[in-house]
Design a protein that fits this description.
Elements: H1 14-30, H2 33-42, H3 47-55, H4 73-86, H5 92-107, H6 110-121, E1 127-130, E2 146-149, E3 155-165, E4 172-178, E5 192-198, E6 204-208, E7 219-229, E8 234-239, H7 241-246, H8 249-277, H9 289-317, H10 323-348, H11 363-368, H12 376-387
Parallel strand pairs: 1-4
Antiparallel strand pairs: 2-3, 3-7, 4-5, 5-8, 6-7
Helix pairs in contact: 1-3, 1-4, 4-8, 4-9, 5-6, 5-8, 8-9, 8-10, 9-10, 10-12
Length: 393
């Protein structure tokens, strides 16, 4: 299987992407897939992976050079995530932190950028994202977590978030909370605040969810019981928090596509290598169209999704909204990656379900990406309404 990491990448970004892939090879050598799975089985964390990212200066990718970062924009961040996933070691914490700091870069104060963006480059700041709630689900307008003004100008936060990945490793959470009084109408540009909240504050409680997805990162319910935060915790304008969050979701969509496609590539490579040597009837099974065609189709579909993904990243970096392509990239990337993993499982047969083969271990994570961080049905709604102009679902 040919190395395709520079295919579909815009020509002016190929040198950047090539250097990122070279750096990731060193990271993967320090923290290989075997250690990734070991940490997952032990319920531990991938601290060595995070340290390797810092040492390789990969956390500086995406932060503007005038702030001391390495630049590269979303294209660079996408390449980092894709390269790590291709190596079988995709760190969800990387995606969460880079996405969250983008909101602060766009809407935060100079002090917030210093405290919560520049600090991420050295690995001293890890940020998780707090949006989803048990009752609201995809409908974030129905969120019940509230942030009420206090006499000293700060806020008191109460409520609950769920499926918060990496909450135990993160020192801060980028939190969406309702600032409008109960019963008052809310919308994209009114009624919400976006806060950067210290996870060590009194009143913050974590409860781990029992989810098995073969990754050294866990998911939590996070409870906020009258958590007092200073006025400086508010990112941007009060009331405009939902809008501030939405303005950065395109980056999330693209990095999730990179995550999915990287794992799909990893699965396909394993399947191709196996299909070349597995020969129960004297001829390698890869010579049979029933094995070969699903792998070939998944390859073509992933290549197409990758084209959309890097095009979306380039558009975003050029200052365009890129929402249409970013959503399409997440949809196509997650679906193509799932097809690749399914084809790899089928090619391996029963051995795919043996843990040491490391094939079925890929399925839960890629399957989750059909649902999170936004389910593909909602993306189809977006395309139907925003791209095709059809009536709102």
């Amino acid at each position: 299987m040919n190395d395709t990491h520079l295919r579909t990448v815009p020509p002016d970004s190929r040198e950047l992407v090539a250097s990122i892939y070279e750096a990731v090879r060193g990271v993967a050598a320090a923290f290989p897939r075997s250690l990734f799975l070991q940490r997952a089985r032990e319920g531990g964390h991938a601290r060595e992976l995070w340290d390797a990212l810092v040492a390789a200066d990969l956390l500086a990718i995406g932060v503007p050079e005038f702030l001391g970062g390495a630049g590269g924009g979303l294209t660079g961040t996408t390449a980092v995530m894709e390269a790590l996933a291709r190596a079988g070691v995709p760190p969800l914490q990387y995606s969460l932190t880079t996405f969250s700091r983008e909101a602060i870069l766009r809407h935060g104060s100079e002090q917030q950028i210093k405290d919560h963006v520049i600090a991420t480059m050295t690995g001293k700041r890890k940020i998780c994202l707090g949006v989803t709630e048990p009752e609201a689900g995809t409908n974030s307008f129905a969120s019940r977590t509230t942030a009420r003004r206090t006499a000293d100008g700060g806020y008191r936060i109460s409520g609950q978030k769920v499926f918060i990945s990496g909450a135990d490793e993160s020192d801060h959470i980028l939190l969406l909370a309702r600032t409008a009084p109960q019963g008052e109408e809310v919308g994209r540009r009114k009624g919400f605040g976006l806060f950067i909240v210290d996870m060590s504050l009194p009143g913050v409680e974590l409860r781990r969810l029992d989810i098995e997805w073969y990754a050294p990162e866990n998911q939590y319910e996070v409870f906020f019981d009258d958590v007092e935060v200073p006025a400086e915790a508010l990112v941007g304008q009060e009331g405009a928090g939902f809008d501030h969050l939405l303005s950065c979701l395109n980056q999330e969509r693209v990095t999730v596509a990179a995550w999915a496609l990287g794992l799909g590539h990893y699965a396909l490579q394993k399947a191709v290598d196996y299909a070349k040597v597995r020969a129960p009837f004297g001829k390698p099974i890869g010579a049979h169209q029933a094995v070969q065609h699903p792998l070939a189709l998944a390859t073509a579909e992933m290549e197409a999704a990758r084209q959309v993904m890097y095009s979306a990243a380039a558009g975003y970096d050029s200052g365009h909204d890129a929402g249409d392509q970013a959503n399409m990239a997440k949809l196509l990337g997650s679906r193509a990656a799932l097809a690749a993993v399914e084809a790899a499982i089928q090619a391996h047969g029963g051995s795919a379900f043996v843990y040491e083969t490391d094939v079925v271990t890929l399925w839960p994570m890629v399957r989750v990406l059909q649902i999170a961080p936004l389910n593909n049905e909602s993306i189809l709604n977006y395309i139907g309404e925003r791209v095709l102009g059809l009536p709102r679902s």
